[in-house]
Amino acid sequence: MKKSTVFLAAALCGSLWSHRAMAACYVVYDAAQKVVYRSTQPPVDLSFTLHETVPKVVPGGALVFLPANLGCEFEVDDLARQASQEPLVPALPSMRPPRAMRG
């Protein structure tokens, strides 16, 4: 019983420190490495993977997390303009489904 209490206490302490790794500033760069978004609020839903959400917002762009909010006091939000522009990379052709097994 005592080992399980120690394990529970260690798990609780670990979970308390894990929340400190959150970002304080979110910066989105477009394909030309220009800042198109900078804020303390995330530009995409972080419950999904970034490779699914960021290209929908800024094709060819990148999202950077900063631990300090240096520079975030001057917010930038050009995402609406980015969404209306055509992507710099042409769309890839759809892949054909695999052939059926012949036997």
Task: Present the secondary structure layout.
Elements: H1 2-18, E1 25-29, E2 35-39, H2 50-57, E3 62-66, E4 76-77, H3 79-84
Antiparallel strand pairs: 1-2, 1-3, 2-4
Write a compact overview of the structure shown.
The protein has helices at residues 2-18, 50-57, 79-84, and strands at residues 25-29, 35-39, 62-66, 76-77. The chain has 103 residues and is α+β, with helices and mostly antiparallel strands.
Q: Which structural class fits the helix and strand makeup?
A: alpha+beta
Distance between the termini: 60 Å
Total number of strands: 4
Describe the largest sheet: 4 strands, antiparallel
Radius of gyration: 21 Å
Mean pLDDT across residues: 74
Low-confidence stretches: 15-21
Question: What does this protein look like?
Answer:
A hairpin with a 5-residue loop joins strand 1 and strand 2. The protein starts with a helix and ends in a 19-residue tail after the last helix. The chain has 3 helices and 4 strands. The model is unreliable at about 15-20 (pLDDT under 50). The longest helix has 17 residues, at about 1-20. About 30% of the residues lie in helices and about 15% in strands. It has a domain at about 20-85. It is α+β, with helices and mostly antiparallel strands and about 100 residues long. The chain is flat and about 60 Å long. The protein has a 4-stranded antiparallel β-sheet with strand order 3-1-2-4.
